[in-house]
Amino acid sequence: MQIVLRNLLFAFTGLLGGMAQAEAVSILGKNVLNAGRGSLFVAARSPQSGQTAALFIDRDHRGMFSDRPAHVPAYASAPAILRGTDVQVIRALIEEAESRRDGYDAVQHGARIKPRKRPTQMTLAEIFAWIKATPGQPHAIGRYQFVPKTLRRVVAKVGAKPTQRFDARMQDKLADVLLVEAGLHRFRAGALGRKGFMNNLAKIWAGLPNSSGKSHYEGYAGNKASITLRRFDAVMARISPDRG
């Protein structure tokens, strides 16, 4: 009798185990129990490639630390030597948004390999050699945080030689090309409104906000506006021809 009871108990226990296994398969999928030694989570696979997909992937091929794209000039006016309080104010505002305390010697913080010398002590040839020798990192440099493609273009536009220094005077000269391309002459003449000029500047310098209050490159490689729209507008209003 005892033997019969033990057999019945064993059979009943086996039945419960089978039911539990079937329940687990129906809830978690038939491959879960065979996926490894007790693993509760199976790495997802991409339906296209069949490769194991990471839980957190970089969905943007540009990466977190890459240079923003070079802007398209709003106006292709010839560069000129710019003078005036308005130019000095705009330059200082760009420094506030882009380079701050490092000014003319600023190097983008995400650059893992920095130049061996201060940017103002380097020639243009040395700047471009550093860029070429350190791929895969951001290279925005100087008071105005020139990105490589823009730097090459404005250097060519002013006819600067590779042996010339990337000093304060050179950086201001290169930045002035961008100010003219953003419509400075039209802004001075009243043909371009303050808001339009500000938006053009924001397309060049990611630290400046556009009319939305955000950077034109918001979210691109970690870019965001570093000053408020209220601050930007208040400063520009002081030098705006329309004062409106």
Structure summary:
This is Transglycosylase SLT domain-containing protein. The protein is mainly α.
Model description:
The structure is a single chain. The chain has 8 helices and no strands. α2 runs antiparallel to α8 and α4 packs across α5. The chain is an all-alpha fold and 244 residues long. The longest helix is centred in the first third of the chain and has 27 residues. The protein has 2 domains: 57 residues, no CATH class; 155 residues, Lysozyme, CATH 1.10.530. About 21% of the residues have low confidence. 27% of the residues are buried.
Largest sheet: none
How many strands appear in the DSSP assignment? 0
CATH architecture of the largest domain: Orthogonal Bundle
- N-to-C series of helices and strands: HHHHHHHH
Which geometry do the CA atoms define? globular
In terms of per-residue confidence, which ranges show pLDDT below 50 for 5 or more consecutive residues? 15-65
The class by helix and strand makeup works out as: mainly alpha
Share of residues in strands: under 5%
CATH topology of the largest domain: Lysozyme
Tally of distinct domains: 2
Q: Supply the number of helical segments.
A: 8
Mean pLDDT: 77
**In which range does the helix fraction lie?**
40-55%
Strands, helices and their partners?
Elements: H1 2-28, H2 85-98, H3 124-133, H4 148-158, H5 168-181, H6 184-189, H7 194-204, H8 229-239
Helix pairs in contact: 2-8, 4-5
